[in-house]
C-alpha cells in the first residue's frame, strides 16, 4: 500500500447540497466525489459514525471512497465547536498487485468577519488529528496541541505533540515527536500561514519539517482551524487542528 497525502492548502473544498442532503468534495486537480445520506455509515463497528464524527462510504469498481466529518455542536464528546470543523477524504484504489491510499485533510466553517481583531491576544483549546505514512505502515495520529494568537503583532504560535497508532494493529504506537510552529496573520480575512520546527526526532531518529495553513472562524474569531503537512526521512504526515477560544 502506498500513501499520497494532501492538505487543505492544496485546494480541497467541501460543498453541501440542501436539496439532496449530500456533500461534494473536490481537490485542486478538479477530482470530486459526492456522498448522499444513503452513504452514511451506521455506528455498527469501531470507527463508524458516532457522537464525534460522521462517516460516509461508497464503492465504485476498484475504488473505495470515505468521507469523515468531525461533528460540530455540544454533543461532541471530544471538543464542542460551533463555527469550525474538519474532515478527511480517503480514496483506496485496488490496482491488483498493489493498492494506493490517498488522504486529504481540510478545515471548513463560518469564517471570521472582515473586521478582525487588531489588538490583544487569545489562546485556544485545540484537538489534533491526522495520518502518518511510513515505510513500516500507515499510522493514525493523535496527541496534544496548543494555539495562541497575538493580534497586535499579527502572529500565531502553535505546538503539536503527536503519536501514531498502526492502522493494522492498535497495540503498536510510535512517537512522531514535538513540533513548534510560528506564523503570520493576513491583513484581511483572518487567514494565517506558518512553518514548523521539530524538537528532537521521531521514535526512529528521523527529522521532519513542514507548515500549516488555516483561519479564524466565528464573528470575532472565537474558533480556529488549520491543516498541516510534515515531511521527512521517515515518511509524510498530514492532518488538521481545530479549537475554541479560552
TrEMBL record:
Q: Which SUPFAM superfamilies match?
A: OMPA-like (SSF56925)
Superkingdom is: Bacteria
Signal peptide start and end residues? none
Instruction: Give all residue intervals belonging to the Transferrin-binding protein B C-lobe/N-lobe beta-barrel domain.
Output: 139-239
Spell out the Pfam families in the cross-references.
TbpB_B_D (PF01298)
Q: What is this protein called?
A: Transferrin-binding protein B C-lobe/N-lobe beta-barrel domain-containing protein
Q: Give the organism, scientific name.
A: Sphingomonas changnyeongensis
